[in-house]
Design a protein that fits this description.
The chain is α/β, with parallel strands linked by helices. Helices cover 18% and strands 31% of the residues. The protein has a single domain, classed as UDP N-Acetylglucosamine Acyltransferase, domain 1 (3 Solenoid). The strands form 6 sheets. It has a 10-stranded mixed β-sheet with strand order 5-8-11-14-17-20-25-28-22-23, with no helix packed on it. Helix 2 crosses helix 3. The model has no long low-confidence stretch (mean pLDDT 91).
Length: 260
C-alpha cells in the first residue's frame, strides 16, 4: 500500500497519473490489499487518493462488451471474476471489478455491488439490494431484501456509507450520504437514514433524550418515526432502545444459511 501511495502522490504532483498506476490501484481494491476507508483507533479514515483513482478510472476506460457466465454486459467497468471464496446464488446478480468480497459472503439474486465497495466475511446480501460505490460493509452483517446502501464517490474527502460488524438492516431500509452505523445496531424495515435527517433517541415514556446526526450508536435499535414541524410531519428515525438478549434472539441468523 505504501508503495502505491508514494507512486500516486509523486505522479499527481508532477503530472496526470499513469494509466498503469490507476489500474494497479483498482486491482489492489479488487483483491483486498487496500480499501477506501478503514478503522483506526475507533475512528474511520477515508483514503481520498483511492477515491480519486476510482474517479479517474472511469475517465480512462472505454465501453466494451463483457461476459460473466451466460450474462452479457456493455460498460466501462468490467465485472468481477473472482468469486472463489463466496457464494453467489443463481439469478442475475452483478458485481463490478474493484469490489472486494471477503470469504463466505452470500449474494442473493438479484443484487448489485458497485466499484470500491467492500463486504466483510459472512455477510448476507439479500435480493434486490444495492451496495453503492465505496460503501464499507462489515462482517456478519445482514442486508435484508430491498435494502439500498448509497454510494459516495465525490467529493473524494466525503465519508462513504459505513456499516460496521454484526449490524442487521431490515427490508427496504435506505442508508445514504455517508451515514455511519456502528456495530451490532438494528435498523428496522423501512427506515431512511440520510445526512439531513434528524435521528431522535427517546426513553421508555417516548420523551426525546438526545439527537444524533449521521452516526447510529453501537447496539442501537432504530425504527421509522416522525416529528412535528408546524402543520406537517417530517420523517425522523427513532432510537427506541439498545440491543439485549431478547432482541439478539429475534434477529439471529441461521448459520445453516451461511455454511459453505
Amino acid at each position: 500500500m505504501q508503495a502505491l501511495i508514494s507512486t500516486w502522490k509523486s505522479e499527481v504532483e508532477t503530472h496526470q497519473p499513469d494509466n498503469s498506476t490507476i489500474h494497479s490501484i483498482i486491482e489492489a481494491l479488487d483483491n483486498g490489499d487496500i480499501r477506501v476507508a478503514e478503522q483506526r483507533g475507533g475512528q474511520w479514515i477515508v483514503h481520498e487518493w483511492i477515491k480519486s483513482a476510482i474517479v479517474r478510472y472511469f475517465g480512462i476506460m472505454n465501453i466494451k462488451e463483457y461476459t460473466c457466465g451466460i450474462l452479457g454486459f456493455r460498460d466501462k467497468i468490467p465485472v468481477k471474476s473472482d468469486f472463489s471464496k463466496v457464494r453467489v446464488v443463481p439469478g442475475g446478480s452483478s458485481v463490478r471489478f474493484g469490489v472486494h468480497l471477503e470469504e463466505q459472503v452470500v449474494l442473493m439474486p438479484p443484487c448489485y455491488v458497485n466499484i470500491g465497495a467492500r463486504i466483510g466475511a459472512g455477510t448476507m446480501v439479500d435480493s434486490n439490494v444495492l451496495v453503492g460505490s465505496c460503501a464499507q460493509i462489515g462482517k456478519q452483517v445482514h442486508l435484508s431484501a430491498g435494502v439500498q446502501i448509497g454510494g459516495v464517490l465525490e467529493p473524494v474527502n466525503a465519508r462513504p456509507v459505513i456499516i460496521e460488524d454484526h449490524v442487521f438492516v431490515g427490508a427496504g431500509a435506505i442508508i445514504v450520504e455517508g451515514i455511519l452505523v456502528r456495530e451490532n445496531a438494528i435498523i428496522a424495515p423501512g427506515v431512511v437514514l440520510s445526512a439531513g435527517t434528524k435521528i431522535l433517541e427517546v426513553n421508555k415514556e417516548g420523551h426525546i433524550v438526545k439527537n444524533h446526526n449521521s452516526i447510529i450508536p453501537k447496539d442501537a435499535i432504530v425504527v421509522p418515526g416522525a416529528r412535528k414541524r408546524g402543520e406537517v410531519m417530517l420523517q425522523s428515525p427513532i432510537i427506541i432502545g439498545y440491543r439485549n438478549e431478547k432482541t439478539d434472539a429475534k434477529v439471529a441468523l441461521s448459520h445453516f444459511l451461511r455454511e459453505f
